[in-house]
Specification:
By secondary structure, the protein is of the alpha/beta class. It is built from 12 helices and 15 strands. The strands form 3 sheets. Strands 1, 2, 3, 4, 5 and 11 form a 6-stranded mixed β-sheet that branches.
């Protein structure tokens, strides 16, 4: 046996020993999770048991990254722990998560990033169906897109927050890399039509203008739907979608990362039916309606400045008799400064709807 083989043999024994310890600890953690469920059920009383606590999970993941000493990167370690928590939570109660389908969309990718692969992800035909399933209790949570770094706010999602009584429980930020997908054996030169969600078509406009200027661009409900359509075409159609859709529908990637902005990101919101406690690093979202008058926006925003609360997003939507403002800001609704601001904004507006306070995205 060579010296190299001897040294590798010692290291492999160490790895086997460590793997055994990891396995034992994973089962101990799973056992603790089961005991947590038993305690909650024992003391539930007349209240519905809440197994998933977004603020608790965010705190755990932050501590994982804070104590990480390498060589694994902080976020890689946090993703491993996310999957561990997902598996353990499934022992307490399998999580049913609705998203804009079909399978293979960026929204599903966001759902898996936030809840882990042990959650049961349920594809639906529209964002409004996601809201409806969550409000009715048929889904524990839903994942919906709210803004993109290049295309801005998703107005349809904003309108649904006005219509449905759901609560924002979390957020997910996802780097979005768009690929041009082709049927197996097809060639880019033969593409006469490109199908995708309208935002993806917009995000890849410059690439399409340069490489497929004569191809018809057709907007469909989702990129997952676009990818699914390619399987039934004659090779003259291409779709814009991500890695998950390419793998799921067994399509070739004709061109990678065709988005016009390389740092393209989409933010998704987690909607549910629970009030989330403070995690220590939180964000709050509100909808405010007011009459269209000079200084209306200033009057709404001035209390945030006076109480030193940072705004992260302000969007305006015109109403028939005034304006509606969607506002994201740092802090939790239980914070004293936030309570004062919300009271002042309520007094100075026609209506304020607190959409939720939730942990800032960890991963």
């Amino acid at each position: 046996m060579s010296d190299q083989e001897k040294e590798l043999g010692v290291l492999r024994q160490q790895i086997d020993s460590i793997d055994k310890q990891i396995h034992e600890l994973l089962n101990k953690r799973a056992s603790c999770a089961q005991q947590v469920a038993e305690v909650k059920l024992k003391h539930q009383g007349d209240e519905e048991v809440v197994f998933y606590r977004p603020e608790r999970e965010a705190q755990v993941l932050r501590r994982v990254m804070e104590r990480n000493a390498g060589p694994l990167p902080d976020k890689d370690v946090a993703r491993l722990f996310r999957e561990v928590m997902s598996v353990c939570l499934a022992l307490e109660e399998p999580m049913r998560v609705a998203f804009l389908g079909p399978a293979g969309t960026f929204t599903q990718q966001a759902a898996l990033k936030h809840f882990g692969h042990s959650a049961v992800s349920v594809p639906l035909n529209s964002v409004s169906e996601v809201f409806r399933e969550v409000q009715s209790g048929n889904a524990h949570y839903g994942v919906v897109p709210i803004e993109n770094s290049s295309e801005g706010i998703v107005n349809h999602t904003l309108d649904l927050f006005k219509r449905y009584d759901v609560t924002i429980c979390g957020e997910v930020e996802l780097p979005v890399h768009q690929h041009l997908l082709l049927k197996d054996g097809a060639d880019l030169s033969g593409v006469t039509r490109v199908v995708a969600h309208h935002q993806s078509l917009a995000q890849c406009r410059a690439w399409l203008d340069s490489h497929l200027p004569d191809a018809e661009r057709v907007a469909v409900m989702s990129n997952g739907e676009a990818a699914r359509m390619i399987g039934d075409c004659d090779g003259t159609m291409a779709a814009i979608a991500g890695d998950m859709a390419a793998e799921l529908y067994e399509l070739e990637i004709g061109a990678r990362n065709i988005e016009d902005q390389p740092d393209n990101r989409t933010r998704f919101l987690i909607v549910g039916n629970q009030v989330v406690d403070s995690s220590g690093v939180d964000k709050t979202s509100i909808l405010v309606s007011t009459k269209n008058k000079p200084g209306a926006l200033y009057q709404l925003l001035e209390p945030f400045y006076r109480h030193q609360i940072s705004l992260t997003r302000v969007e305006t939507r015109a109403l028939s008799n005034g304006c509606m403002f969607y506002i994201d800001f740092e802090g939790h609704s239980s914070d004293e400064a936030v309570k004062k601001v919300l009271a002042e904004v309520t007094a100075g507006s026609d209506e304020l709807k607190l959409l939720g306070s939730y942990p800032c995205a960890v991963l």
